[in-house]
Design brief:
Number of helices: 0
Strand content: over 45%
Order of helices and strands: EEEEEEEEEEE
Largest sheet: 7 strands, mixed
Helix content: under 10%
Structural class: mainly beta
Radius of gyration: 14 Å
Length: 117
């Protein structure tokens, strides 16, 4: 079974930067896709970014050019570097792992990111 643990969330001023991390444990395979979703109170959980072990990335239009996702295959850790943060980025950020066989999805517990106004 896969376990995902996020860290690095916190309070940041508009225009500031923050990096959140997600450490994966268990058996991790090169075919696993990892990424980040976020959810604000009363809102749907929205896609933010994904990355393959080969480094192929995909971003939501709202964060493209501001956020950068990266992945360390040795440490089984995925990162999200968030720059030029806006109050609208305030949400709980969830780490996500997708296993291609059986289309299984795994989620972390979430880390709070608050951009003050």
């Amino acid at each position: 079974q896969v376990q995902l643990v996020e860290s690095g969330g916190g309070l940041v001023q508009p225009g500031g930067s923050l990096r959140v991390s997600c450490a994966a444990s268990g058996r991790i395979f090169s075919s696993d896709v990892m990424g980040w979703y976020r959810q604000a109170p009363g809102e749907q959980r929205d896609f933010v970014a994904t990355i393959t072990s080969d480094g192929d990335t995909n971003y939501a239009g709202s964060v493209k050019g501001r956020f950068t996702i990266s992945r360390d295959n040795v440490k089984n850790t995925v990162y999200l570097q968030m720059n030029s943060l806006k109050p609208g980025d305030t949400a709980v950020y969830y780490c996500w792992l997708h296993r291609t066989w059986g289309y299984q999805n795994f989620w972390g517990q979430g880390t709070q990111v608050t951009v003050s106004s």
